[in-house]
Amino acid sequence: MLGFTLPLQLRCCHHLSQQPPLPNPISPKPFYPPVVPSVPRPRIGPGLRASFPVLSGSVFPEDEADVELGRLLALLPEEMRRRVSDHAELPQLIEVVMDLGRKPLARFPSGDFVISEYPITVQDIEHATAQVGDFAVDNRAGISRTLHRISAIRNRKGTIIGLTCRVGRAISGSAKLLQDLIKDGASLLLIGPPGVGKTTIIREIARMLANDYKKRVMIVDTSNEIGGDGDIPHAGIGNARRMQVPNSDAQHKVLIEAVENHMPQVIVIDEIGTKLEAMAASTIAQRGIQLVATAHGITIENLIMNPSLEMLVGGIQSVTLGDEEASRRGVQKTVLERKGPSTFSCGVEIISKTELRIHRSLEATVDAILSGRFPNVEIRKMKSQEQEEILDNGPVSDSSLQKNGEIMFEEITEGADDQTSQNELLFKLPVDLVEDSWEHKSPLSLFCYG
Questions:
Q1: Tell me: domain 176-377, CATH 3.60.15.10, correct?
Q2: Model pTM?
Q3: Is there a contact between 221 and 271 (Cβ–Cβ < 8 Å)?
Q4: What is d(CA 340, CA 101) in angstroms, rounded to the nearest whole number?
Q5: CA dihedral in degrees (173, 175, 181, 186; nearest 10)?
Q6: Residues with Cβ < 8 Å from 193, sequence gap 6 or more?
Q7: Ranges of H-type helices in 222-347
Q8: Closest CA to 76 of 113, 44, 116, 107
Q9: Which tens digits make up the pLDDT trace of 409-450?
Q10: How far apart are CA 240 and CA 224, in angstroms?
Q11: What is d(CA 399, CA 393) in angstroms, rounded to the nearest whole number?
């Protein structure tokens, strides 16, 4: 019997090893989250907390913007996240500031809002930094597939002791006021103070050029603010391609590489700040490539007086005139003149998120400023999501300027130092006179002297 027992036992064991394990009747019942239409099923795991925001009154976000905002709020502890989510201005959240040993702040258009009565601890900083990407040399990091920017403050030993969590949004229609210039293929230089929306506008310009006008657009993204963090760019740039810059000091090299290797029709640059970057942009413009870039400054005069960026407007040189020429011009013998052609054809001063100042000819603006004259400027305002053109290089009428039965013809000129209403010339004409002239078919002409 021993000869039969051993093979039989082996066969039984082999047969049992192939059978699936029996279910455990006392095992806990698995949890399946509810499925909401048009929202993908969430994954169970550590990523769940970072993928969905804790919003009052809803479990899942309504659109992609809420998802991205929730991923930023996931950096905060539970109590802070709840207080931010309950704020009435949550969709307009600007940034969250976390400094070690201080109360955290959430900044909204209406002002700062304290989101916790307890100061930030080391554990709070570590919890936030563990959920973002690696910090680069410029102490900036991001959250993959989002436009948020996380900036770090370090102590002398290199330890992170503060975070500025800036909210990034892709706003459709933010470049509508510049649509005619974009369509004409003009090279645009956008200037404005930090936080006014320069990056948001050029991101939308890149999307419009790539999707609407079918151009080959290459974005040179220094801090991943245009295309977002991670290897896959954000959907806000449309079909435009993106080249990341490993080090901010190498941005001018990446600009030349983008032109030589990828044959773009448009180059989009964020934050031109050094002389090497200005020289690279000038070289690209000479090859006939459309440029869209931003630079820090408030007015065109700031670029003229900036030795590192003056090349963007053609460069400035001092010229000594002869006695006869100086007398003819009525100026001193030593004057400042533009050295060469401007890198950009148009300049845009961003006054606010709804108001722009357009310099259609950047060279003419620079020449006027250097000669002490007032350059022509075109002011455009966004009102009720519609484009409202206030000035077009001369007196224009606009239905929005009708007040008390009068049409106001407004001509705005801008000086180098004085940009107040003292430089505005207002011409008022009764509406009745205009209507009578049309009834009698007699031409009406307005002339401005002086």
A1: no
A2: 0.71
A3: no
A4: 53
A5: -130
A6: 296, 298
A7: 251-262, 275-286, 300-304, 323-329
A8: 116
A9: 334 444 434 433 333 333 333 434 334 444 444 555 555 544
A10: 14
A11: 18
In contact, 267 and 220? CB cutoff 8 Å: yes
Provide the 8-state DSSP code for 239. Answer: T
Compute φ and ψ for 223, nearest 5 degrees.
-110, 15
Residues in Cβ contact with 115 at an 8 Å cutoff, skipping those fewer than 6 apart: 76, 80, 83, 84, 96, 103, 104, 105, 106
Q: Using an 8 Å Cβ cutoff, are 163 and 125 in contact?
A: yes
Residue 123's Cβ-count burial label (10 Å; 0-12, 13-18, 19+) is: exposed
∠ Cα 304 335 307 (to 5°): 25
Supply the angle between the helices 251-262 and 275-286 in degrees, to the nearest 10. 20
User: CB–CB of 387/355 below 8 Å?
Assistant: no
Residue with tokens 């409202």: 388
Fold of the domain spanning 50-166: Beta-Lactamase (3.30.450)
Closest by CA to 407, choosing from 381, 377, 438, 383, is 438
The per-residue pLDDT for range 307-330, each reduced to its tens digit, is 999 999 999 988 888 888 888 877
- Concatenating the DSSP letter of every residue in 69-108 gives HHHHHTTS-HHHHHHHHTSTTGGG--EEEEEBTS--EEEE
CA neighbor of 267 nearest in space, from 279, 285, 249: 285
Q: Where are the domains of the chain?
A: 50-166, 176-377, 394-450
- Mean of pLDDT values over 319-342: 84
* DSSP letter string, 138-174: TSEEE-BTS--EEEEEE-TTS-EEEEEEE-----TTT
Instruction: Give CA–CA dist 147/223, Å, rounded.
Output: 11
Task: Identify the three-state secondary structure at position 206.
Answer: helix
Say how far residue 446 (Cα) sits from the centre of its chain: 42
Grouping H, G, I as helix, E, B as strand and the rest as coil, residue 355 is: strand
- Residue type for position 210: A
Cα 180 to Cα 437: distance, rounded to the nearest angstrom:
33
- Whether 350 and 194 have beta carbons less than 8 Å apart is answered as no
Q: Which residue has the tokens 């002297």?
A: 449
Token pair for 352: 């606010």
